[in-house]
Amino acid sequence: MSETVYLTHGRIDLALHTLRADEGPILLLLHGLGEHSPASLPPEYEGWPGAVYALDFTGHGHSTVPRGGGYTAELLQADVDMALAHLGGATLVGRGLGAYVAVLIAGTRPELVQGAILRDGTGLAGGAPGSSPYIGFPEPTQITPPDPFAIAELATDVRPPDYITEFVRLAAEFSNCPRPISVCASERAPWLSAVVAEIGVEATSVEEALKFYAAQIIDK
Amino acid sequence: MTAIDKAPVLFPGARVPDRQRTVEAHGVRLAVYEWGDTKAPPVLLVHGGFDFARTFDVFAPLLADGGYRVVSYDHRGHGNSEHAELYSWQADERDLLMVANSVSPGPFPVVGHSKGGGLLAHIIQALPHRFSRFAAIDGLPFRQNPPDVANRERTAKVREEAVKWLDDRRRAHDMERRPGTPRELAERRAKMNPRLSHEWLEYIVYGGAQQSDDGWRWKLDPSLRMGGFGPWRSRWVTDRLPGFPIPLLGLFGTENEPMGWGVDPEGLRKYLPRNARIEVLQDVGHFIHIERPQQTAELVLEFLNDE
Question: What secondary structure, in 3-state letters, does chain B show?
Fold first, then answer.
């Protein structure tokens, strides 16, 4: 069983799970839309030479389920910021929506993110600016995680490609890491295609990206 | 339904709502107010950001006296509605629809000021069957030309806003409103409402603030922030205005002020359907219905009655 601490984000308690306590560089896993943190260390991260944590986003896993929704990718970015403030910095691995959030935070807090690895996962596609107006209106009789409001709202949250690329540029300019973002996803939502085309982004494998960031941190 | 106590401070023409009730919007309790005959045809008023329904205390009774059951409510985190864990445009829209459901299965007319108009413009585009007519009081988003700045400058601005958003979220759990006397609260509010009289601002203290041991505080959730942060762009609404599905009246003032959106009515006109009506009131700011309640009510009643 992993050890869990709860971090306060406004009126939400966020569950941050320790999958492996260790010295050395910190890896923080961000799940996809509707998912939750893994209960134990996934085999693909066993080679990471340090501690591994996983965060449950608001409304997911063991984190608080708020009343009546109100989710945005920017809110989830602030969830990750709380974890980074607690950990003092980390290399991020994001699945789907977690990958999008990883780019946002890599651009906004470049001093706390030692590389972001973007993986396939749920919630990757998001809404499109050209889609018809739609208001997510779940009518659940009983709310349990994952919050159906999170799924309704974040699956349609519009993510214009030219918005996320601003954050890639910020990461490229202000990060100490020579390659702040690694794209290890096969699905290419429009925003992710735009990310791949930016300077400071490398399309690679998860294994290579993990080795690259571990080496970067240990060399320092 | 409960009656509301009279305000301890009077303001000419102001009338407290005739009835108050609660709508539970997926766990968040919203305060709903009504003026006028319960059997009259309904109209829903939607307030702007950082306001609350009681700021309609002069305007709403004029519509009620014009033959309507006027319904309004406090947005989540505003006025007497509960503070929520999260706030977003979509959550506000869903709350509004929960209040609309409590009024009538529809369609019925709606009036929105500022952000209330922006919410309604989008909701009506998503659910055109729910509403019959829409009056926007400086409440239509405008497609402004993007500022002519270098890419680098724009990226720096994005960074500044994003860092501020995260810094505010880190402090959100222990934010508290500053206490003061009703006069001090009115004076603080005047910074964002510079065209409104002190008498009016002190009157609304009694509708939007509460007293505790160390003084009065606005009820507004201290974790709410001015301005949005995120990718939302007004053109997602304005680009669809040519096909707006119900009759539309847009009221604008000529004077720009802090809470206004800087809409250029002439610039907006080309996005509106031909039958949309635009009225520009001279020497009026963002709070048209508070500065000119009588004239605004006449224009809105004429529009509502023009079936």
Answer: CECCCCCCCCCCCCCCCCEEEEEEECCEEEEEEEECCCCCCEEEEECCCCCCHHHHCCHHHHHHHCCCEEEEECCCCCCCCCCCCCCCHHHHHHHHHHHHHHHCCCCEEEEEECHHHHHHHHHHHHCCCCEEEEEEECCCCCCCCCCCCCHHHHHHHHHHHHHHHHHHHHHHHHCCCCCECHHHHHHHHHCCCCCCCHHHHHHHHHHHEEEECCEEEECCCCCCCCCCCCCCCCHHHHCCHHHCCCCEEEEEECCCCCCCCCCCHHHHHCCCCCCCEEEEECCCCCCHHHHCHHHHHHHHHHHHCCC
Fold classification of B19-146+225-304 is Rossmann fold (3.40.50)
Nearest CA in chain A to B128: A133
CA B203, CA B14: separation in Å to the nearest integer? 9
- Best probe of the B interface among A63, A74, A159, by most B CBs < 10 A, is A74
Domain range enclosing A132: 3-219
Q: How many domains does chain A have?
A: 1
Beta carbons of B170 and A135 less than 8 Å apart: no
- In chain A, the N- to C-terminal Cα span, in Å, equals 32
**Whether the predicted model's global pTM rises above the 0.90 cut:** yes
CATH number, domain with residue A46: 3.40.50.1820
For A139, name the nearest residue in chain B, comparing CA atoms only.
B26
pLDDT in tens, chain A (220 residues): 579 999 999 999 999 999 999 999 999 999 999 999 999 999 999 999 999 999 999 999 999 999 999 999 999 999 999 999 999 999 999 999 999 999 999 999 999 999 999 999 999 887 776 778 888 888 777 778 999 999 999 988 888 999 999 999 999 999 999 999 999 999 999 999 999 999 999 999 999 999 999 998 877 6
Residue pLDDT, tens place only, B284-294: 999 999 999 99
Asked if A135 lies within 8 A of B233 by C-beta distance, the reply is no
Residues with Cβ within 8 Å of A24's Cβ and at least 6 positions away in sequence, in order, are A49, A50, A51, A217, A218
Domain spans in chain B, listed from the N-terminal domain onward: 19-146+225-304, 151-218
ipTM: 0.94
